[in-house]
User: Fold this.
Amino acid sequence: MKPLFFGEAERRLYGVYHPPAKSSRHAVLLCYPGMQEYNAAHWMFRRLATSLSREGHHVLRFDYFGTGDSDGESDVTTPASAVADVHTAIRELRDLSRAREVSLVGLRLGAACAALACSEGFAARQLVLWEPVIHGDAYVKELETLDERRNLVLLHADRTRGRRDELLGFPFTAEVRASTEAIDLTAGAPIKAKRAVILSSDERAEHRALRDWYERSGVPTELRTVQEPEEAAGRRLRERPMLSNAVLLELARELRGSLVG
Amino acid sequence: MTYTEKIFSFGPSGALQGILVEPRGRRIENAPAILTWNVGLHHHIGPHRFFVTLTRSLAALGFTSLRFDISGLGDSEVSRDDTRPDPERAVADVREAMAALTKQRQFQTFVPIGFCSSVDAAHAVGVSDPRVVGVIHLEGYGFRTKGFYLRYPLRFLNRNRWERLVRMRVLGDWEAAAEASQDRERVYVRDYPSPKKLQSDIAALVARGAALLLIYVGGDTDYAYKEQFYEMIDERAGSNRVELDFYPDADHTFFLEEDRRRVIQRIGFFLRKYFVTGDRRISASAPPSSRMQAEPSPRAER
Assistant:
């Protein structure tokens, strides 16, 4: 594990590079989710990075500008800035690894950023979208529901009622809100990737719509449902997929093909 | 920017990782280094990026900080042969951080900041190591006292509490109920020193000349009024080197940005009060950030 800062001097990004256990020409960039999901996912991403590097992939996980240890205040991160950071991180990963091909794995908002990077010119070996945010407006509504409940539980209801500038413990400016709500992965420029996989704990219509859009764009896309035994038994686990061993194994299995392909 | 940040690897085989945050201008001469690390399982940035904002703000005041991960958490590794219990390992890692800062940056004194569970290591190191000249506890040890129980009925004057009750029990918002229940389990199961031990520890720290800042919050905690700490340790007179704040409206992890800003500001004032004296002034090249200039809000000082 090698932590590092990279990118432009006034816009440095923090990342952790996991070198492969054996010589390899394939690299994987991990794209964290946003906001409160980042902390919940951090441990899972470390486990995933360790597991993939043991399998023989070069791996880089990194913080977008304004998140984690990267430069920037917490109110400056927009989907567009995060996508620009994905491109910067890809360049850094190529420099570190000399890999011929790079695959992207993103969780939630990170999946949206990875997909948008692939529709802005980057050609991925594999694009793995893990519980992707497909429609930004629905995502923001979901966060608002969680935020309202959290403030109720924490006895902040009267201080936060009607407030729109903060969400789940993070600043949420009008600009960030507008650009997040504008996300729609089922429209816009087609992605470039040899293959795409959508991983989720439950198959929904929006997953099928995304798969169909990618397929029409000429990218072979697979929709795969992965559940922990508890989920399969009907228990709802909102943030548990971020600690899911089943997903970890599935991701490792999925990317194994890129080592030989 | 008023700070610089560098990767800081230390400990056995460089397995411990952190970010060293230094003032871009001249640092305060002979000031202690500030140490922060994991809150529960959060990695070193802290809940809602609290430690990132805090350490950058402190750099603007002229203080150097290290925010790092304890072995096996965040970006730090742990040897499979390391069988020490977690609390013991955490204390050893804080000492490693101090040793590395002495070796690489010549720091001789330190102020650890404990937040919730990390208070345990901050307190243990503070009590046992004379290089620790100040200790900050955010949501540290709290014991219910007679005064707590006397004030308990006042909770029911809080409109938010009634709104929550109605939503959970009457309207059947079971997700909110489950979340509240998980919070109680997650936050309050800790192995505390006895009040008597805490009293003698605090007395020893003060006798040594160390300064303490203890910040507590209201909500669903075991803390209900500012002076409860002195009642807990049966030390009514207090001490001029122990500063105590109570934020009745804040929650355990300072979920709202306004509350985080208030705590960060308070920590800055505490450090400046005790560790910026005489000719140890901050240079003009590193002005305090706008977030740190105002006096702490009076509503925090109930």
Summary: The first strand of chain B starts at residue 3 and ends at 10. The CA atoms of residues 23 and 185 of chain B lie 39 Å apart. The domain at 3-149+194-300 of chain B is CATH 3.40.50.1820 (Rossmann fold). The first helix of chain B runs from residue 50 to 61.
